[in-house]
C-alpha cells in the first residue's frame, strides 16, 4: 500500500468519524424498520441490490432487486429486470434468465436493451439446447440493422449450429416454421 493511499484512507476515516460524532456518536441510531414501507422503498431496494451486486453478494443483490418487481411500473423495473436476468444467467439458471429477458424484450422501448435481451435469450437457448429458439432469436438479431458485427457473427454461428442439430434430430418441422432453409444460413456464413 502506498503511503498516499493510506493517507487518503485515514482522511476518509476521520471524516466519517467526525460525521458520526456530530450525529451523537454512540447515542446515534437509525430506525431501519421504516425502510421496507417508506416512500423510497423501491429506490432503497434497487440501490441496495446494486450495492450488493458490486460487492459480489448475489444472494442479497437478487433479494433486493426482486423486491423492485413487487411494485409494477416503477422507474427501476427495466434496470432491475436486466440485473436479475444477468444474475440468473451467470448462475446458469437459464430458464429464469430467459423468462426475465423475454419480459425485458416485451416491456422495453430502448433498442439497446432489447438487443441485449435477444442476444442473451439466444445464448441461454443455446445452453439449454432449444434449437428452434436459437434460430428465432438469432434471426431477429440478424434482421436488425443495429446489431454489432461481433453479435452478427455469433448469431450466424449459433443459428447454423442449431440448424444442423435440428436436421440431425429430424425436427425439420421447426425449420418450416422459421422459413429459412439451411442453404441460406450456410451461404450467409460464407459471405461474412
Characterise this structure.
It is a single chain. The chain has helices spanning 3-22, 41-54, 58-68, 77-90, 94-107, 111-128, 131-142, 149-168, 172-178, 182-191. The N and C termini lie far apart (49 Å). α7 (131-142) runs antiparallel to α8 (149-168). It is mostly helical and 192 residues long.
Number of helices: 10
Could you name the ranges where pLDDT drops below 50 across 5 or more consecutive residues?
Answer: 1-6, 30-34
Helix/strand/pairing category: mainly alpha
Radius of gyration: 24 Å
Mind summarizing the main beta sheet? none
First-residue to last-residue Cα separation: 49 Å
Please estimate the helix content: over 70%
Measured by DSSP, the beta-strand proportion falls in under 5%
The count of β-strands is 0
Amino acid at each position: 500500500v502506498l503511503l498516499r493511499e493510506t493517507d487518503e484512507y485515514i482522511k476518509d476515516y476521520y471524516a466519517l468519524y467526525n460525521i458520526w460524532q456530530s450525529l451523537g456518536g454512540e447515542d446515534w441510531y437509525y430506525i431501519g424498520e421504516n425502510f421496507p414501507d417508506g416512500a423510497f422503498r423501491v429506490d432503497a431496494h434497487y440501490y441496495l441490490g446494486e450495492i450488493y451486486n458490486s460487492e459480489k453478494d448475489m444472494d442479497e443483490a437478487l433479494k433486493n432487486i426482486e423486491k423492485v418487481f413487487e411494485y409494477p411500473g416503477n422507474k427501476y423495473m427495466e434496470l432491475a429486470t436486466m440485473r436479475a436476468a444477468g444474475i440468473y444467467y451467470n448462475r446458469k439458471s437459464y430458464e429464469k434468465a430467459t423468462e426475465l429477458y423475454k419480459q425485458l424484450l416485451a416491456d422495453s422501448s430502448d433498442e439497446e436493451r432489447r438487443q441485449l435481451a435477444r442476444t442473451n435469450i439466444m445464448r441461454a437457448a443455446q445452453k439449454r439446447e432449444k434449437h428452434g429458439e436459437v434460430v428465432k432469436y438469432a434471426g431477429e438479431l440478424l434482421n436488425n440493422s443495429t446489431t454489432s458485427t461481433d453479435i452478427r457473427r455469433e448469431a450466424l454461428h449459433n443459428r447454423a449450429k442449431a440448424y444442423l442439430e435440428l436436421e440431425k434430430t429430424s425436427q425439420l418441422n421447426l425449420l418450416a416454421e422459421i422459413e429459412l432453409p439451411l442453404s441460406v444460413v450456410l451461404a450467409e456464413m460464407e459471405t461474412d
